[in-house]
């Protein structure tokens, strides 16, 4: 149970699945298809979907690179959170969006695994949320030329450590897209 005991509901969080973020991402098409499936399951189950879009000098708001990938479409009733930091909670209205809907459990998907996904799942846990990371619905680009592990290893490591992550009164979990139920 979440430490946000007055928030019994769940939401799906789709982080930064934008043209300029996932264009060169590892297994991009498979991951985007899994996110699409996850969003469809959430909608069918009446579970809110919250979309997050990052902007920066290299990802200019309203540019083609900033747009969500064409395979995904946000329903006009679904919340959209604009961010400029890796953690989707930092300097955004995400907490207000979640609080107003009584959300205490987040199911997280998106990109980049080694930056915005990690920052957001940790940020959520620190703020009192239960967090499920969707194992096959997050990705990252290959930064191995800079000394990082290859994307498959970044994703596998994140899934591995998150399944064992815990905090008082909060839970962390890792599930594949086909295992997520609402």
UniProtKB/TrEMBL annotation:
SUPFAM superfamilies: Isochorismatase-like hydrolases (SSF52499)
InterPro entries (UniProt xref): Isochorismatase-like_dom, Isochorismatase-like_hydrls, Isochorismatase-like_sf
Single GO MF descriptor: hydrolase activity
Domain Isochorismatase-like: start-end pairs: 10-142
UniProt KW keywords: Hydrolase
Key word Hydrolase present: yes
Protein name, per record: Isochorismatase family protein
Domain of life: Bacteria
Record lineage: Bacteria, Bacillati, Actinomycetota, Actinomycetes, Propionibacteriales
